[in-house]
Amino acid sequence: MGEQAALTALVLAHQRSVYSLALRMLGTRDLAEDLTQEVFMQMNGNLQAIVSNRHLGFWLRQVTSNRAIDQLRRRARLPMASLDEQMQLQLFSPEQDSDPMLQRHLRLLLMELSPPARAVLLLRFQEDLDPTDIAQALDMPLNTVKSHLKRSLESMREKIAGMPSVRYEDNST
Amino acid sequence: MRKHTAALFFILLAPALTWAAPNPRLTFPSFAAVAQKASDSVNITLDPAMLALAAKFLGNDPEDAAAKDVLKGLQGIYIRSYTFDKDSAYQQADIDGVRSQLASPGWNRMMETRSRKNRADVDIYIMVDHNQAIGLALIASEPRQFTIVNIIGAIDLEKLHKLEGQFGIPKIDADQSNPPPAAK
Amino acid sequence: MSKDLESQLRAALRPVAPRKEFTERLVARGAAGQADRRAVRSLAARGIRPLAWWVGASLAASVLLAIGIQQHLEQQRLQRSGLEARREVVEALRMTSQKLNLAYEAVKSQSTSRAAEQSGA
Hints:
The structure holds 3 protein chains of 3 kinds. By secondary structure, chain A is mainly alpha-helical. Helices cover 72% and strands 0% of the residues of chain A. Residues 79-90, 92-98 and 165-173 of chain A have low confidence and may be disordered. Chain B has a 6-stranded antiparallel β-sheet with strand order 1-2-6-5-4-3, sandwiched between helices. Helices cover 85% and strands 0% of the residues of chain C. The N and C termini of chain C lie far apart (129 Å). By secondary structure, chain C is mostly helical. At the A-C interface, helix 1, helix 2, helix 3, helix 5 and helix 6 of A face helix 1, helix 2, helix 3 and helix 4 of C.
């Protein structure tokens, strides 16, 4: 197999993960596509330092999350009045309309979290990383990761409970 | 005197400049019967597309550069040439189909040479439009070969002349040439 | 912590695929990029998620192979035609030049004879 095919295979294997992280961190398709492209371009220049495919997967999530957090921090300093509205439109794209209403609310609530908390939640529930790996990926103390997880879930649970249209019963103890 | 041989073509060409010309493309007969008798046949058909393609594959060495230079402005080169193993294997009548086309308006016989030394007769015809040569026809008859050349396009005869010495053709010593004979 | 909420979150956050056009652009840009080719090959050889790898690799290889073969054949055909056209042009000009030469020689010969006659007279 040639190098181009191998590179294509790497992109195909990881693009969903990178793109989904970017989309749910940044909220719009255009920004997510730009970030995904940047991340894979960066990957091209760093493959020599990658020791395994597991390492590559981890590296891609790490770079995507951190770049997204940086972007959101920069964006917070800029006036972007229409962004929230745009985000909502794109987060509920037609292909996701069949999702249960609760899941739509959860994605919306995710956007209300701070960028680091959002990244923690995404790495935990989208990428299925354990807290230790999340701490390493985001260069964050383990306790901070756990704290983000706990507070974010509690906040979501409270908000969901207050929504009359959501038929969701919290059975937590 | 150096340029007399080359200038000959232009001097002879001058009277023809006022002629208007329709289509410089000759219609070659099939020459099937002739080809059967010939030991060697050359059939070259280079239309504008082929000329453009060929130009892309010509390099920068002197031979290719000269060819590229000549090709500028040309729209077609068509050649039929037949070589035979013995003398008089073909008849002049075989070429009459082409000669009759050259008798039509637009074509002007620029040169008619008969060489005893080479036993070769060469007739050169030119078609001119708006003071520009737009077509050339050449019929060369030798005992064991006849060749018909038809070139379409803005022909630069000086460039064609400069090709002598290229492609393995020995260059004529122009210094020794004398003033050309009067135009026919 | 609610197990239901967690499972709902996992469902809500299932990875989604980007647009097909974007994927094509991404793959094209990746292929044109400055990746360290040995590293790519080595990494690919170590095997990423087996299914994703083989599906992706097979698709990519098929597409690239088809494109590559087509381009190669087209290139070969063009090369052959071009070289043949060049050969014909050189041959055509050689023959034309040769026949023009015959005419020049005849003219030169006539001129020389005439000059000799004039000087003899």
